[in-house]
Structure formats: C-alpha cells, structure tokens
DNA sequence: GGACCCATTGTTAACGTTCACAGTCTTCCC
DNA sequence: GGGAAGACTGTGAACGTTAACAATGGGTCC
C-alpha cells in the first residue's frame, strides 16, 4: 500500500538508521570532521548514496547562521559593464562555494538601494556586493551599515565600506594623452551622466591630462551612456569648427558619435580622432575599429568577491580596503596623427 | 555592563514579550491572519517597530518548505540576449515576491547543467528557469526531472518541461521575406553555432521562406555569434559573386559583416542588403543602421516566470505549456531594393 | 596497574519559525 | 438561560540540521 505515494526526501536520521550510526556521525562525515573511523565513514557514504540523500541547506543555515549566499545589487544588468562585472562576481563566488542572489535595479535612488539591501539582508545573505556606480547609491551605502559585510564596486570614496574599482581617472588620462601625443591641439569630451562616479572620474582624468599639457579644456558634451546620446553629441561636434579629437566616455556613445560623423561626412580618423571607453566586444568591428580604454571587469568581479570573503571569513577587523584595478589602452584605427 | 556588546537580533519571542502576547500571535500578525483583534495587531506592530524586528526567512523556509527563491541557470550572461532575458526574469520574479539565485555557465555541457540544477535544488529553490538555448542543454533537461518545477527558455521541443521561447523560425522567415520582397534573387545566410536551437530555428525560417518563393538556398556560412565570426563570413561573402542579400543570425555578427564589407569596398545597402537579428541597442547606430528582427526578451522573461509560478502555486497539474513570443521586424537603412 | 589522554561515538538541546490543536471569551439564537 | 458558533489567543510540537557535552574504549606513561 501507499507505494504510489512519492517517498519523501530522506533526512539525516534516515541515513543514520541505514548506516547503523547516530545522526551526529552522519553530520560529522558530511562536514569532514577528522575523528570518524574510515570504515564508519564509508558505511555512511554508502548509505547516503543508496538513499540519494541530500543535505538540507536551509536547516543548516538556520543553525550555523551562514547561508553561503552572497547578495548582489546592480544597476541595469543589460548594460555591458554591469553585466560583465556581475558575471565575474558570480563566477568567483561560485568557485568559492557561494550562491549568488541578484537584485537588479531599474533606477538607483536612495530607497531603491535601501530596499534591495534590506531584501537581501532578510534572506540571510552572508555578504553583499553593490555594483552601484552612481553617486547617490554610494552615499546611501555609507549611511546604511546593515548587519552584513558589504563591498562596493565603483563606489566612490572609501568611507565605511570597502571599494573595488577601475581607475577611471587614469583611464581618462590615458585616452587624452594618447590623443595629445598624436599632435591634436586639444581634446573634446562626451561625458557620461553627472550622477555617475565613473563619468566624473573620466572627466577628471581628461581635465588633468589637458591641464598637464597646458591646453584649455573645452566644455564637455553631456551623454547618458546610450548610443543615441552619443549620436546627438556627434552631430553637435560635427557642426563645430576646430574639433579634431574626441574622447567619448563609453564605447556605445562612441558608436553614436561615429555614426553622426559618418552621416555628416566627417572622416574618422582622417579629420577627427575618436577614443572610447570599455572595450566592448563590438568595438573592434566599428567603422573604423575603435581605439579605446579597456576595463577588466572580470578582475573587478573577482577582486570584489575576494575582499568580501576576507571580510566574511577573516577574523581580524578589516581596514576598509580600496582596491583599484588599472585600465589599459587599446590601439585601433579610430585615431590618427593630426 | 556589556552594553558595548552588539545586541543580538530580536526574534519573534522578543516581540511577543514586548507586546504582551504569545509568539504565535506575532506570527499571525506577520502572516496577515484575519482573526487578530485590531488593537492587538497594532500593539504587535508597534513592538516590531520599536525592536526593529525582522522575520527570519531561513527559519520560515525550514518549516514551510518554501524559500520564495527561484533559480536561474543561464549561459554566458555577458551576451545581450541572455542578459536581457535574465534581467526580465529577475524583475518579474521580484515583482512576484521571489528572490532570484543565478548560476551562469561558462560552457554548457551535460554535467554543467546537471550540477547547476543540483546546486540550486540543494539550496531549496521553489522553481528553476533554465535559459539554455543549446540542444545539449535542452536534452539534459528532458532526462533530468528534479523535484522542483522547471521552465526552459528557448528549450526546444516541449518534452517533459514547459517552454517559453521566441518564434525563431518566424523571425528567420520575416527577415528572408523582407529581402525577397525587395527583389533580391536569393538570400545568403550567416548562421549561428549548430548546437544552438535558436540558430537552427532561424536557418529553418530562412529555408522555408526561400522554398516558398521557389528559390534555391545557398550553403549557409557558419558563425559563432561573435562579431569576429561575422567579420570572417563577411570577407568570404565579399569575395563571392552574385551576393546581393544577406540574413545574419544576430546583430553582433551583422556588425562584423558590415565591417568586412566596408573594408572590401562593398556598399551597404547599395550593393548588398543586410538583415540582422536581436535588435541590440547598438544596431540603430551601425553604419548603416541595421534592419533587424527584434526579440522581446522582456516578454520572454516575464512569461517564463508566469509559467513557472503557475506550476509552483497552481494546484492543478500543468500540461507542459509551450509559450511562443512573436518576433517583430524593424526596418532601418541596411536593406534596399535591388 | 592506575591515571590520563585521545579517538570515536552518542545524547540532548538549541536555531526561529509555522502548524495543529486546545483553550477562553463573546455573541447570538431559541 | 443553555448552548453553539464564532472570534481571538495560547501551548506544544514539529522542521532538519549543528553545537555542546557526555560516554566509551583503547592505548601510553610512569
């Protein structure tokens, strides 16, 4: 009778009975406790195998207070940058034996970040990575010390939380110096949205490089990372006199700029040189292939997990690290000597 | 003394004591049980507020057997398609009050998918969405009925699992018919990797449209979704005589094709018309702007969650649905009358 | 040969919630 | 006024694991 009924999942006690030991011994085998006779161990292992037992991680989390789950809060994971970073985070976390729970925000405002953090904290995550490159998000984070360890990616000034980021200033500098070294009088800039720290950093690097070379910095054109905004900036630039070099704050906008120039009959790189930022997979096949600054998103992801795990598993109180990943210059065909 | 010690998180019993009720009453308030006197309810709510109590979801999951967490298995979330789908899934899941745990596979092989599924099942997810457009993954899924409800996205033939997908065949047909309607004698095709069901579907649609028009189908060129592979296919096509229309299986490869044509002096759309697939945000700003087939990834994500939740929460045994999202044609400037 | 240590195992009690059931106190009806 | 049907609340036992401690047995050391 009742054989048709789905047999319920075996629990530790079932394994114990099958192997003729106590449930605690089963637990010890599972947790690789040293003091278990090897013969006992194999007997337990066989019982586990026979019954198809799988340990209930929820029950385990209840008593250990560790869920082995990490939370990730990110902004629009459709964009290449965030997507790649989250991907790197996920890979690194899984390699370390952690699950990853994701909250992807449509827009980043104070309450949005706060809710996401609460939401994840409720779930009992052991730590949180916040991929929140906007100033508002970064500030929220500073106030908001939840019970769990936090690492910010691109999170601005290291306040109360550890930060892992790419050196945006250096990237902006690299791009600008490259253009200056080709003999351009000055370099125009299509910047990202003012709320974004990354945008700020690139502007700062651009300004610094110009200042160092004793050149005046033209007014930067505002964009929002989208190809369309780049396109519009490109139309403006095409209509202006004396523009021979442009540093665009990301590759997508650079694509828009290239498109606008092409429409207006402005030849790249013959008349104007263009440098992008990110090195998305498409950049190499733009017309012309885009010279750009590469961000190692994978390294960012890996490092953020490393810092976070150190905070979670390490015993000593951490010193709120700030880990900076260097960008690199990628030469292609969109820039030329003046 | 001991005030410096971090006060431990309050639990239900603490709230109960504070409010002068039993822990069960607190539980009832939290779970919105109807039979609680409203005065009692406010007293409990005040106690919760005062103590800053937050319900322990792990303990709750242990007894209810529901974690309110959904698992997502995906292949390379760096690609636009998977990234957008996962984004849609995450949004829909959160709206429904579920957490999302992600496993992003580097490569999809049988063991990879199996491990991911086990991994998620161990964690106690209530259901799993598998974004696995490869044939091998889809087949693995069929064998592998774990204890939890599963929905496959782009999962091929609806076998034992429900499937949500975009009508790839229809997409291929739309692209091809558009080109034929412009007066092109035949349409060449740069296809995706043969292991991918999406690639197969697009090939099938392309073939069907050609057959219906009574045209011979040239041998398709093989690509791997990357711009580079499109570039190589483009070089081949540029060197061939009689190529006037090309349907490329995704926008990234189409970019490579456009690049190759541009290098070889082949004018698009004057000499050759090109149609892509996906409608990534960049496509509108390619040179020339790319005519393409749009996939509504957001709808796919939403639908997959809907189907999954129906399986989880609905009482009646589901009939292994197959939900097809139609693609749409987006006209731009990369195609022209012959 | 007795004390003691260590390896191995078992027993009992948490962890913080919900479920099942048993109360108590109204209210309402005949 | 007796009873029954609700509304509301409390008590005890799960859920499946790990932690703490106790117990057993064999060996070693002097």
From TrEMBL, chains A, B:
The keyword Transcription applies. SUPFAM superfamilies: lambda repressor-like DNA-binding domains, Periplasmic binding protein-like I. It comes from the Bacteria. Keywords: DNA-binding, Transcription, Transcription regulation. The keyword DNA-binding applies. Residues 10-64 form the HTH lacI-type domain. CDD domains: HTH_LacI, PBP1_LacI. InterPro entries: HTH_LacI, LacI/GalR-like_sensor, Lambda_DNA-bd_dom_sf, Peripla_BP_I. GO terms for molecular function: DNA binding. This is DNA-binding LacI/PurR family transcriptional regulator.
């Amino acid at each position: 009778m009742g054989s048709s009924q789905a047999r319920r999942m075996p629990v530790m006690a079932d394994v114990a009975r099958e192997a003729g030991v106590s449930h605690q011994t089963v637990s010890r085998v599972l947790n690789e406790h040293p003091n278990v006779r090897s013969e006992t161990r194999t007997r337990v292992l066989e019982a586990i195998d026979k019954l198809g037992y799988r340990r209930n991680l929820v029950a385990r989390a209840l008593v250990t207070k560790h869920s082995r789950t990490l939370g990730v809060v990110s902004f629009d994971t459709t964009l290449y940058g965030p997507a790649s970073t989250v991907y790197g985070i996920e890979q690194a976390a899984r390699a370390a034996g952690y699950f990853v729970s994701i909250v992807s925000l449509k827009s980043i405002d104070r309450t949005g970040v706060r809710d996401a953090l609460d939401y994840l904290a409720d779930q009992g995550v052991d730590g949180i990575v916040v991929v929140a490159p906007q100033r508002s998000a970064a500030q929220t984070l500073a106030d908001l010390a939840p019970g769990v360890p936090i690492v910010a990616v691109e999170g601005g000034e290291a306040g109360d939380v550890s930060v892992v980021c790419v050196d945006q200033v250096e990237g902006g500098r690299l791009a600008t110096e490259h253009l200056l070294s080709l003999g351009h009088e000055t370099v125009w800039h299509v910047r990202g949205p003012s709320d974004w720290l990354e945008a700020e950093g690139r502007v700062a690097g651009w300004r610094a490089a110009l200042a160092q070379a004793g050149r005046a910095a033209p007014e930067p054109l505002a964009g929002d990372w989208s190809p369309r905004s780049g396109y519009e900036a490109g139309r403006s630039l095409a209509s202006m006199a004396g523009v021979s070099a442009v540093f665009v704050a990301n590759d997508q906008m650079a694509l828009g700029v290239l498109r606008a120039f092409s429409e207006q009959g402005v030849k790249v790189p013959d008349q104007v040189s263009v440098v992008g930022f990110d090195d998305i997979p498409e950049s190499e096949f733009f017309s012309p292939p885009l010279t750009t600054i590469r961000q190692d998103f994978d390294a960012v992801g890996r490092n953020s997990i490393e810092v976070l795990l150190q905070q979670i598993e390490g015993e000593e109180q951490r010193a709120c690290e700030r880990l900076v990943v260097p960008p690199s210059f990628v030469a292609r065909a969109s820039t030329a000597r003046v």
